Structures are given as C-alpha cells and as structure tokens.
Model the fold of this input.
Amino acid sequence: MRCLQRIHDTARWKTWSSILLLVLGGLAGGCSEGAKLIQATDRGGVVTYPYKEQVGSMTTRFRSEALHVMEDHCKGGYTIMKEGETKGRSRLVENQGIPEVISEYRWGIQFQCK
Done:
C-alpha cells in the first residue's frame, strides 16, 4: 500500500510540476523584451520590437513603444528611413512531453533625427 501511495504522490508531483513549467514559460514569453534601441548615434539609430505573426508588426502594442523610444532619442523629431523584419529567434519548448518550436519575430525601424 505504501508503494502505491508513493507512486500516486510522484504522479501528482509530475502533473503539478508540468503545470508550473507551462505557467512559468508563458509568463517568461509574455514578459519578452519590448522595444529596444539596438543602435544609436547622435543622428539616429535602429530600434527593434517583438510582434506576433498573427497580429502583425504594425498593430502590436510594441510599435507605439518603439515610436516613444525614437521620440526620446530625437528630441526634435525623427524620420523613419527604413523598416522591416529583422532577426528573431526560434526555441524548442516541450509541451506535455511533445516538443514544439516557437518562433519569435522582431521588427526593425531605422530612423534619422531631424
């Protein structure tokens, strides 16, 4: 009987630890970096931000954050010179024992101060 109790406790622990890992993974993914100034000069720079492919790069909430980063950098205004998809990353996540590849996309904006 004690052996069955130990197996039951182990199964329960595995279930809870799997749930905990999924929640922590979701929180870590949700807390990914927002807009980031990756290159800066006194005349401009490049800012990148994450976006989801389903939502698009223009409608994500991080775009307005990127615009604020550019405004803070260029006190007299800025001009967007070029923008487009930039290097993202892919990572392997195990979901209930099944590996899943998650792709993270980033958008880049090159800007020049006025």
In short: The two ends are 78 Å apart (CA to CA). Residues 33-113 form one domain.
